[in-house]
Structure formats: structure tokens, C-alpha cells
């Protein structure tokens, strides 16, 4: 009975101690903003006893997940000072960021500028960190698509393929049986439904893989097992490529280079012959007086029938690659047209400078039966613009040739491409009607 009578007094003493003895408080909870701030003194012992959160929280260790959570809360409530402090805290632990890189990248897209810059720099310098990260599967579709569009990454194409396959498996099946630190799983016992589900998940990503850069043995081991998820026409095109290149047994040099007087082709075109390439190179040389002896190497960046016909694919594979030559076959016709852009395509210019004047650019129409009947058009003297960069379009030579996609975003399905002769002094077609693309190729032009 005496013990019970002591409890109320003991409780009263504890309350008095915790209310009045602030010097014993070891936790300060600060609430408010700017001048309207109030401090609440607390005791870690009481917090731990009464709260499971505080009981498990470590005040001494850098808890990465807790920091992430606080960072999101800071942004939600616009607590700028805390947000900057937490960003700096994360950046002081680069190893932990690397271990949770995909999560960090995903978070940085929420306007965390310091983290975003760190992630971009890391991806450019060490792309394997994200492609081999344990949380790669946490990337959302948009982030993964943007990542695969970056053609400047110094990582093998087969490693990209392995990563998206694992990502696709995780996002296709409720119980993915895959270890993200191992190789691609054995799929010999997969059902048709499994392949169908995976194909549906990865349909927008597969065209971003440049299969021509995958070594034949790697293609056989890593890609062939997933033949059922690849479009048949694309797969046949890849096989044709490997068969033709087998003479040299090196996918990076698919055919023996056949030099003409001043051009090397790394990959022969299915649209035009070498004599047409020679003519195009001669036209390039004519744009710069005194350079007729220059030799050039043409490297295939994009083939519509292999990589797709969307603006996203075009900009992902051709932006920021320097001078390019575009060759286009018009659907339902034998017409071959195209253009040369000595500057880089760059969809980001659309925001501030979508139109530009590039005097050395030109457009052309090739006559393969009689090459002497081919025509070239160069910017007229009063041309204000000659090149247009637009994220929703393909290569556009302003006032001459426009490659555009409509509701499908596809140059082959949407019949919205057209020609006019305003700025280049020639009419590439006898009609002003719109057309779609049967196939097209974009080559990087490098002076040797």
C-alpha cells in the first residue's frame, strides 16, 4: 500500500524535473521558420521509452535511409536550410550514394540540384556504378529511358542489355526469381506468356540498344535467348549484320573498309551505294574551299529499320555527335533524299535557340541510276535559318526538308514529313505532299 501511495508523488517529481530542469535535456526540437521559431526541450530517454521511432533511431551513425526521408520532408515543407544541410550530408558519403545510386538518382530528379549534378558527373565518368547498382530496378521508366538515350556512356552495349533485361524481369513478374548481382537467368523453361510479358515491359527500351556494337559471342550468349522479345524484322536485320560481318569476325569493324578516293565507310548502307557516298563527301569538301583532298570516315549512328523511327530515338542516338549525314528513303517511292549538318543535333537547343543558320549545311536528292542527275541545295544568300532542333522531330533542314512524327511519334507510321525549297534553293520533290519514311540512316562524319 505504501508503494502505491509513493507512485503519484514519484510521478509528480519526474514531471517537475523534466519541466523545470532544462539543463538536463539532451534533445532540442526546433519548430518554425525565420523569426517565428520555438524550441522544445526533450530527453532522449523519455523519447526512446515512449516512441518506437526514437527508440530505433541512431543519433551517432549516418543513417542513409533516414537522411533520405528527412530530405523529402524538408522539400515538402520547404525547409530550405535543412534541405541544403541534408544534401551536403549525403554528398559527404559518396560510397553510400554509390551503393544506393539508382535511388539517389531518382530522388535527385525532385529538384535536388547538388545531388543531381553529382549523379550526372558519376554517370558520365563511371556509368557502371548505376548499371550494376543493386537498386537499378528501382529506376522508373522515364529515368531509364533518358539514361539509355545517352550515347556518350563508356559502357559496353551488352552490359546495358543485361541491365534492362534484369530491370524488365523485376517489373514484369510479381515474384522475380533473379539475383541482380548475377548474370542473366536461364530462360530455357520460360513459357510464352513470360516472354510476352517481358516484351511488353521492354518494348520502348529495346530500340535504344545498339546491337551492332555487341560482340557476336556475347550476342549469342546474352541476346539470342531473348529472341522472342525482339521484333522479328529487327532481329533479322541484326542477324544479317552479323552474317555479313563474319568475314572479319569483329563486330566493331563489320566489313572490310572499302575506301574510295576520300571516304571510309564503317558500315555499308542498305539504301545507297559507295559511289553515292563519294559524291556526298565531295559535296562536303566543296563547302570548305581548298579541302578537296580531305578523307572522311562515316560511322553509322542510327538505322531506322534497326533502331526505330521516333524523335526520341533520333535525338538519343544522334544528338551531340558532331557533323552528321542523313540519308532517307521515302515510303512507297524509290526517291532517296537527305541532308548534311556540320553542327551537332541538339534537342535541348529548342528552349532558347531552336533555329540556327549553318552555311555549310546542304540538302540533296540522289539518282542512283544516273548519279550525274543527283542534285544538291545549299543555303541561299538571304536564308535566315537552315537547321531546326526540336525534341518532337527528327532531322529538319529548315526551309527544305522536315522529318516529323504525329500522334504516334513515328516517322514511318505518321505521314507528316515534307519538303519545300525556301532556304536551300532547290525543290527536292516535284510535289509538296507529305510523306512517311520507309527507312533512314544517320552517319557521323569524321575528318581523318
From TrEMBL:
<feature type="domain" description="BTB">
    <location>
        <begin position="25"/>
        <end position="99"/>
    </location>
</feature>
<dbReference type="InterPro" id="IPR000210">
    <property type="entry name" value="BTB/POZ_dom"/>
</dbReference>
<dbReference type="InterPro" id="IPR011705">
    <property type="entry name" value="BACK"/>
</dbReference>
<dbReference type="InterPro" id="IPR006571">
    <property type="entry name" value="TLDc_dom"/>
</dbReference>
<dbReference type="Pfam" id="PF07707">
    <property type="entry name" value="BACK"/>
</dbReference>
<dbReference type="InterPro" id="IPR051481">
    <property type="entry name" value="BTB-POZ/Galectin-3-binding"/>
</dbReference>
<protein>
    <submittedName>
        <fullName>6391_t:CDS:1</fullName>
    </submittedName>
</protein>
<dbReference type="Pfam" id="PF07534">
    <property type="entry name" value="TLD"/>
</dbReference>
<feature type="domain" description="TLDc">
    <location>
        <begin position="278"/>
        <end position="446"/>
    </location>
</feature>
<dbReference type="InterPro" id="IPR011333">
    <property type="entry name" value="SKP1/BTB/POZ_sf"/>
</dbReference>
<dbReference type="Pfam" id="PF00651">
    <property type="entry name" value="BTB"/>
</dbReference>
Amino acid at each position: 500500500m505504501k508503494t502505491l501511495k509513493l507512485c503519484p508523488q514519484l510521478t509528480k517529481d519526474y514531471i517537475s524535473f523534466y519541466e523545470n530542469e532544462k539543463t538536463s535535456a539532451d534533445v532540442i526540437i526546433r519548430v518554425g521558420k525565420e523569426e517565428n521559431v520555438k524550441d522544445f526541450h526533450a530527453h532522449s530517454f523519455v523519447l526512446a521509452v515512449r516512441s518506437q521511432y526514437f527508440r530505433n533511431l541512431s543519433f551517432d551513425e549516418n543513417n542513409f535511409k533516414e537522411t533520405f526521408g528527412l530530405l523529402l520532408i524538408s522539400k515538402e515543407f520547404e525547409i530550405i536550410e535543412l534541405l541544403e544541410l541534408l544534401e551536403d550530408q549525403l554528398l559527404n558519403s559518396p560510397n553510400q550514394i554509390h551503393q544506393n545510386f539508382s535511388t539517389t538518382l531518382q530522388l535527385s530528379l525532385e529538384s535536388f540540384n547538388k545531388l543531381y549534378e553529382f549523379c550526372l558527373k558519376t554517370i558520365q565518368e563511371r556509368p557502371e556504378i548505376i548499371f550494376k547498382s543493386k537498386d537499378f530496378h528501382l529506376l522508373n521508366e522515364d529515368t531509364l529511358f533518358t539514361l539509355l538515350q545517352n550515347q556518350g556512356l563508356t559502357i559496353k552495349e551488352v552490359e546495358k542489355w543485361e541491365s534492362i533485361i534484369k530491370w524488365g524481369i523485376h517489373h514484369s513478374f510479381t515474384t522475380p526469381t533473379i539475383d541482380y548481382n548475377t548474370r542473366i537467368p536461364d530462360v530455357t523453361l520460360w513459357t510464352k506468356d513470360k516472354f510476352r510479358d517481358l516484351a511488353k515491359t521492354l518494348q520502348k527500351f529495346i530500340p535504344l540498344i545498339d546491337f551492332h556494337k555487341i560482340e557476336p559471342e556475347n550476342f549469342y550468349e546474352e541476346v539470342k535467348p531473348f529472341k522472342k522479345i525482339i521484333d522479328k524484322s529487327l532481329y533479322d536485320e541484326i542477324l544479317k549484320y552479323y552474317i555479313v560481318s563474319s568475314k572479319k569476325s569483329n563486330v566493331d569493324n563489320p566489313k572490310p573498309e572499302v575506301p574510295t578516293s576520300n571516304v571510309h565507310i564503317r558500315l555499308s548502307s542498305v539504301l545507297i551505294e559507295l559511289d553515292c557516298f563519294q559524291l556526298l563527301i565531295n559535296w562536303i569538301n566543296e563547302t570548305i574551299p581548298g579541302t578537296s583532298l580531305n578523307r572522311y570516315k562515316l560511322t553509322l549512328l542510327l538505322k531506322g529499320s534497326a533502331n526505330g523511327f521516333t524523335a526520341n530515338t533520333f535525338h538519343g542516338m544522334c544528338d551531340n555527335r558532331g557533323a552528321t549525314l542523313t540519308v532517307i528513303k521515302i515510303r512507297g517511292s524509290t526517291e532517296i533524299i537527305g541532308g548534311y549538318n556540320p553542327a551537332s543535333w541538339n534537342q535541348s537547343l529548342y528552349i532558347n535557340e531552336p533555329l540556327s543558320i549553318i552555311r555549310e549545311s546542304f540538302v540533296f536528292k540522289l539518282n542512283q541510276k544516273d548519279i550525274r542527275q543527283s542534285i544538291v541545295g545549299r543555303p541561299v544568300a538571304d536564308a535566315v535559318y537552315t537547321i531546326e532542333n526540336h525534341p518532337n522531330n527528327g532531322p529538319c533542314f529548315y526551309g527544305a526538308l522536315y522529318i516529323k512524327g504525329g500522334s504516334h511519334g513515328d516517322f514511318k507510321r505518321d505521314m507528316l514529313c515534307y519538303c519545300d525549297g525556301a532556304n536551300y534553293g532547290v525543290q527536292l520533290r516535284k510535289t509538296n505532299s507529305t510523306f512517311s519514311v520507309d527507312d533512314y540512316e544517320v552517319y557521323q562524319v569524321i575528318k581523318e
